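Researcher: I need the complex structure. Ligand is zinc ion. Inputs:
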Amino acid sequence: MSKYSDYDFETVTAQCDNCGREYEIYGTTDYKEANAELRIDGWINTWRDGTFLDFCSKECRDAYFKERHSDTRS
Ligand SMILES: [Zn+2]
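Model: Output:
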């Protein structure tokens, strides 16, 4: 899981599944709202193999799938 809500402070923290960079979204605990805000800032949300993944950039997404999924899909 690359995203978690803090209900006391009304924030969602997303973490890049490739480089570990974190991004905090304030004023919401809703993942859909958080994703919309992340995308505005250039983040990428991907549903893959039953897991929701977050990446801070297209480069991180490409690097992640190159490392872990290069043998399963073309
Ligand atoms: Zn990253």
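Model: Summary of the prediction. The mean pLDDT is 89.
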